[in-house]
Amino acid sequence: MRFTPNMTPYIKDFPPESLPISSIDTIPEPPLNENFPLNKELQQILHGKQLLFENLQHPLEEIHQHYENGYITYRKGIIKTKSKTVCARCGNQEQSLFAHFPCARCGEEECIYCRKCIMMGRVSECTPLIDWCGPEPDCELTEHPLEWQGTLSPGQQHASDQVRQIIIENRELLVWAVCGAGKTEVLFEGINAALDSGKRVCIATPRTDVVLELGPRLQAVFPGIQVAVLYGGSEDRHLQAPLTIATTHQLLRFYKAFDTVILDEVDAFPYTADESLQYAVRQSRKEHSSMVYLTATPNQKWQNECRSGKMDFVTIPARYHRHPLPVPSFKWCGNWEKSLQQDKLPPAVTQWIKKRIDNQKQCLLFLPKIDKMEKVLTILRKTYPKIQAVSAEDPERKAKVQMMRNKEIPMLLTTTILERGVTFPNIDVAVLGSEDRIFTESALVQIAGRVGRSAQFPRGDITFFHYGKTESMVKARKQILHMNAEAKKKGLIDY
Amino acid sequence: MKETLARYKFRGDYVLARAFSPFIKEKLKNLNFECLVPIPLSPERLYERGFNQSAALIREAGFTPKDLLQRIHSEKQSKKSRLDRIHQNQVFEPLNINIKNKIILLVDDIYTTGSTLYHAARVLKNGGAASVFSLTLARG
C-alpha cells in the first residue's frame, strides 16, 4: 500500500507523490475527535493489538476514517535506519531474515519484508501496523471474581502474597517454584486483585500444551469472567477478555494491551532461544504494568540476577505435599549407542526396566533423539510388546499420553517433549544418554520433577544413565538438593 | 514440499521462489518454447498476495514472464471442490497480443485437477498458438 504524505491510502493508481509507509518521515497523528461515531466492534478487535489490514474484516475506508479522527494509529511495519532494518512487529533485526520482492501492493521493485514472523501474515515496507489509540472498550467489572475453595501451603501463601503485592504496585517478580509446588494456585489471589481493579491480565507460556491445560483451570476458578484462550489456530482471536491465556507466539499480535503479564515456564523452549518472543512479551505490556515470571528452573543468568539482588524473586522450595524432591542418581552405562547398534540395551538399563515392569510400576524413559527412541522401542517390544513411544511430531501424542494415564501401557519412551507440563501420579523415570547436550540443567530438573508429584505417591526413582557425567547433570542434582535443604530449613517438608 | 509451497504462496515468502530455480532451469534446458506464460491472478488476488507466484518462479529462474492472459472472475481455486473445478467454465480471456504460431510454455505452481492449465491452454490455442505445454512444480 502507498500513502500520500498526509496519509491518504492508495491501493491502486498511485499518485506520484505517494510513498510506502516506511519512506514517510513522520506519520501524522490526528487529534481525537470526540464526536466521531466510532465502530465498537472495531474498537473491540483492535484495542491492545497490532494488526494488518488483512487481519481486519472492516473496509479500508472505515479504518482510515478512524485514523483521521484520532482513534487509530498507523506505524511502520518495517523500520529502516542507515545501519539496519528492524521488523516492528516481531523485533527481528537479523538482516538475513529480511528479503525483498517486486511488490504489487506498492509498486516498488524492492519492497523489504520480514521472513521471521511471516507465518502471521507478511509485514513489508509498505505494510502499516494498525493500533487502537482511542478510548478503551468498556468492560464490566466483576467484584471479587475468584471462586476457589482450596487452601495454600505456607510456601505457596508466602509467594501468593508477594505476587499480589507486585501486581498492585506494577513491579516485576520471579517466582522460582519447584516442579509440583503448585505454581498456578499461587497466581489466583494476584489475578483476582488485578481483575478487581479493572486490569487486563495475560498468562503467557511458550507451550501450547500448557495453554490448553491452564485455560479450563482458570475459567473454573474465575467463572464469572471471560477467559480468552489463544494458540495457533484457536478461535478466541478477537475476544477482548479481562483474562487472556496465550502462547508467547500469539503475543506478537498484541500491543500495549496488558496491565499484568504472567509468563509461565520462562525457561522453556522456544522462549529462551527466540528473541522475537521476548520482544512480543515486552510489546504486549502497557507502559505501567506488572510482570510475573514463573519457573521451576531459571537459567544461570536469572539465578545470578536473583542472588545479586538485581531481580525481585520469591522461592517455593517444596512441593505442596511436603515431601522432598526425588534426587536423581547417576549410573554409568558405557557406550549405549554402540549397544543399540548391536540391538542391545546396556544391562543396567535392562535391569532397571525389568524391575519396574515386574513390579507393575509405570515408568518413563527419556531419550535424546527420535531415532534412538525408535531403536530402543524395537528392542524393548521383543520382550514387552505393549510399550509405546511418543515424540513431538507424533500425531497420536495426546492419545498415547492418555493411554499412559489410563494405565493401559506399562512404559512410555519419549524425547524432551514430555519434560514438563505432564503429570502421571505414580511413576519412575529414567534418562538414557543424559550426557547429551539436549539435556540441559533445566531439562534434567524438569524431568526429575515428573516423579513423586501426587500426595498419594510422593516418592519414586529418578535415574540418569550416562556415558560420562556432564556439568548439567551435576548442576541439576545440586539444584534439587539445594531446594530440599532450603525447604527443610524453612520447615516446608515433614519427611 | 507442501509446507514450503504453502509458505511461498499463501504466506507470501517471495524468496522461496529461488529455491525452485535450479529445478526450473534444468527442466527448461530441454524444452523448446518461445514464451513463458504465468497463470494470471485476478487483480484482487494479486493485491492480496503482493506477487504472482507463477511469474515469480519464472523471474527468479532468470527468465522474463510474458503476460498473455487475464482472469475473468476471482473465486479461489483452492476453495473449490474437485468436481467444481473440472466442470467450471472458462476462467481466462486473452490479452490483445498476437500469438499466431507461437510455442508457449505455461507455468504454474501446483497441478491439482489440471483444469486451470486446460482452460489457459484452450484460450491460447484458440488465439492461434502453435502448441502449448505446461510446467508445474507439484501435484496437489
Commentary on this structure:
The complex is a heterodimer of chains A (495) and B (140). Chain A is α/β, with parallel strands linked by helices and 495 residues long. Chain A has 3 domains: 131 residues, no CATH class; 163 residues, Rossmann fold; 161 residues, Rossmann fold. Helix content of chain A is 29%, strand content 20%. The mean pLDDT of chain A is 93. Chain B contains 7 helices and 5 strands; from the N terminus they run αααβααβαββαβ. The model of chain B has no long low-confidence stretch (mean pLDDT 89). At the A-B interface, strand 7 of A face helix 4 of B.
Report the major sheet of chain B. 3 strands, parallel
Lateral strand order in the biggest sheet of chain A: 12-13-11-14-15-10-16
Oligomerization: heterodimer
Tell me the series of helices and strands of chain B, N- to C-terminal. Answer: HHHEHHEHEEHE
Structural class category of chain A: alpha/beta
Mean pLDDT of chain B: 89
Write the layout of secondary structure elements.
The complex is a heterodimer of chains A (495) and B (140).
Chain A: E1 2-3, E2 9-10, E3 19-20, H1 40-46, H2 60-68, E4 72-76, E5 78-80, E6 85-87, E7 98-101, E8 111-114, E9 128-132, H3 154-169, E10 172-177, H4 183-196, E11 201-205, H5 208-221, E12 227-230, E13 243-247, E14 258-263, H6 275-284, E15 285-295, H7 300-307, E16 313-316, E17 329-332, H8 336-341, H9 347-358, E18 362-366, H10 370-383, E19 388-390, H11 397-405, E20 411-414, E21 427-432, H12 441-448, E22 462-466, H13 471-489
Parallel strand pairs in A: 10-15, 10-16, 11-13, 11-14, 12-13, 14-15, 17-22, 18-20, 18-21, 19-20, 21-22
Antiparallel strand pairs in A: 1-2, 1-3, 4-9, 5-6, 7-8
Chain B: H1 2-9, H2 16-19, H3 21-29, E1 35-38, H4 43-49, H5 53-60, E2 69-71, H6 82-87, E3 92-94, E4 103-111, H7 115-126, E5 131-139
Parallel strand pairs in B: 1-4, 4-5
Antiparallel strand pairs in B: 2-3
